[in-house]
Amino acid sequence: MFYTMWKEILLKHRGPDWSGLCQHGDCFLSHQRLAIIDPASGDQPLYNEDKSIVVTVNGEIYNHEELRRRLPDHKYRTGSDCEVIAHLYEEHGEDFVDMLDGMFSFVLLDTRNNCFVAARDAVGITPLYIGWGLDGSVWLSSEMKGLNDDCEHFEVFPPGNLYSSRSGSFRRWYNPQWYNETIPSAPYDPLVLRKAFEDAVIKRLMTDVPFGVLLSGGLDSSLVAAVTARHLAGSKAAEQWGTQLHSFCVGLEGSPDLKAAKEVAEYLGTVHHEFHFTVQDGIDAIEDVIFHIETYDVTTIRASTPMFLMARKIKSLGVKMVISGEGSDEIFGGYLYFHKAPNKEEFHHETCRKIKALHQYDCLRANKATSAWGLEARVPFLDKEFMDVAMSIDPESKMIKPDLGRIEKWVLRKAFDDEENPYLPKHILYRQKEQFSDGVGYSWIDGLKAHAAKHVTDRMMLNAARIYPHNTPTTKEAYYYRMIFERFFPQNSARLTVPGGPSIACSTAKAIEWDARWSNNLDPSGRAALGVHDSAYDPPLPSSISAGKGAAMITNKKPRIVDVATPGVVIST
Q1: Which Gene Ontology molecular-function terms are recorded (predicted)?
Q2: Residue 538 confidence (pLDDT) above 50
Q3: Range list of H helices, 113-218
Q4: Structural domains in the chain?
């Protein structure tokens, strides 16, 4: 019991509202709750009628009311959106996960046969790890720190998959048409795309606690804010908390995001909260950020740090949930390097690769940077139904063609370009893409590089491949982050959870082939997209002089799956 309690403490930040534990034999399900839906009675673990089915869930099930109506003979103990999972399993066994519309990681224990099932949402909005102990135990946890000291091997639980203790293997439950990267051919219909996104935002207004929107002033967060503001009045959330939407932005003094966000907030009439941080504030938080985000990826750390600082401020205001704009750039090819896509086939393949990797980058950042302070982030662009619509569009329509006036994410911008009832000012609707780590202020990244250079010597870099043979850091910034990460997570399994490879402006390694100049200017910042970004870096020095630059990037969260065990199985949430 003491052991499980210690594991709960490690993940207390994710769910400060309640600690729940269920033991059945040598199986344990432990849960740290962040109460968003039914705070009064929805404490976890959750059960079916006779308590033979036990479940712990991290996430939100947006269609839980519809699912309850499909099961009229079942009696529910709480108003929690997650309780329906136990009843669905009772009716359908393991074949129910694709009925869930939401973001989730869960572990379900069937006490009748001592078997358990674990599953993760379609693209990995919520985090989940799985590990195996030398004693035959199986562990699951929402964060790596919940199992890294106890498992001989652990790894990222793959998104869109289900794990069954009966077979001891994974099975993919999410199989959309885009997943096999077949080129779609549906004609672009701006009104269909607009309706799909509005529906995605509306369903995320499901909350019993105060909430707001993250607003950077870029296209994606501005659309989230605009649609939320437009539909809030008719929602149940408005009945409890009023129709006045709150928006939040973070940046260095004078940064591009702060200026744009303030203008959007004034246009939409939100109660706007602007948070400032200094480069030193960010540097001072780096170790905490790496501990919570659990990565050494450069872009992710760059973008997670201001988000981590902002989340703390938001939570201090009594807000427990925010809606954010992650996922749009991956779906629509919004990163500036997509300007160089040679054809629609390459464009589409790259969007598919980016979506499949989201759980290692933006979803990881958005969830853990907010969860560190007990704040939940929801991401409507990653709604399953919206993705089905957006990823079925012929990629020829998504291609960036300046000669035709089509900039990045043109199809999304056009869908919300309503002359009669505008969602946003034109210049915001057509603002150039800024990556979050750039938009908070260009001096942020420059300051990080300068700080790393003080702690990592040229001599250390000469031996980098011997010290870190896997994902060898190629810049001092990357080396600095790696040293901190390895101090917290020294296991080989831990370092294998982090993706690697070269990147230009957040591209995959494959897309670097699109422009020969990029191989000498490897940096995840959007400013590395030479000839595209309005504030691009100067052209790179010859490769014999320039040592590339760095690598990593922003997402969502809720009640967590903490320590659980089955016959020798420990599962964490």
Answers
A1: asparagine synthase (glutamine-hydrolyzing) activity; ATP binding
A2: no
A3: 190-203
A4: 1-175 (3.60.20.10), 189-509 (3.40.50.620)
**Phi/psi-derived region of residue 114, left when phi > 0, alpha when psi is between -120 and 50, beta in every other case:** left
Contact 96, 172 (CB under 8 A): no
Mean pLDDT of 521-543: 51
| Strand order, beta sheet including 161-164 | 46-47, 53-61, 102-110, 115-120, 161-164, 169-172
Using one digit for the tens of pLDDT, what is the confidence trace for 93-113?
999 999 999 999 999 999 999
Task: Tell the burial category of 484 from Cβ atoms under 10 Å away from its Cβ (0-12, 13-18, 19+).
Answer: middle
Helix (H, G, I), strand (E, B) or coil at 339: helix
**For helices 476-488 and 279-293, what crossing angle results, to 10°?**
50
Contact 513, 503 (CB under 8 A): no
Binning pLDDT at 50, 70 and 90, where does residue 509 land?
confident
Question: Rounded mean pLDDT of the chain?
Answer: 89
Q: Is 256 helix (H, G, I), strand (E, B) or coil?
A: helix
Q: Which residue in 287, 216, 292 sits closest to 258, CA to CA?
A: 216
250 is in an annotated binding site: yes
Q: What is the token pair recorded at 352? A: 């598919």
Amino acid at 509: A
Nearest to 502 by CA among 533, 534, 535, 524: 524
Is there a binding annotation on residue 214?
Answer: yes
Alpha-carbon distance of 33 to 14, in angstroms, equals: 7
Among candidate residues 12, 13, 47, 18, the one with its CA nearest the CA of residue 33 = 18
Give the model's pLDDT for residue 434: 61
Q: What secondary structure does DSSP assign to 379-443, as a single string?
A: -GGG-HHHHHHHTTB-TTTTS-BGGGTB-TTHHHHHHT--SSS-SS-HHHHTPPP--HHHHT-HH
Check if the beta carbon of residue 533 is closer than 8 Å to that of residue 336: yes
Note whether 221 and 326 are within 8 A (CB).
Answer: no
Which of 48, 43, 45 lies closest to 23, judged by CA?
45
Please give the single-letter amino acid code of residue 432. Q
Read off the pLDDT of residues 379-438 as tens digits, 9 standing for 90 and up.
Answer: 999 999 999 999 999 999 999 999 999 999 999 999 999 999 999 999 999 987 665 545
3-state secondary structure of 335: coil
Percent of the chain with pLDDT over 70: 88
User: What's the CA dihedral at 420, 421, 424, 430 to 10 degrees?
Assistant: -30
Which long-range contacts (C-beta less than 8 Å, at least 24 apart) are formed by 48-52?
48/74, 48/86, 48/87, 48/89, 48/90, 49/74, 49/75, 51/111, 52/110, 52/111, 52/112
pTM: 0.90
562 labeled binding residue: no
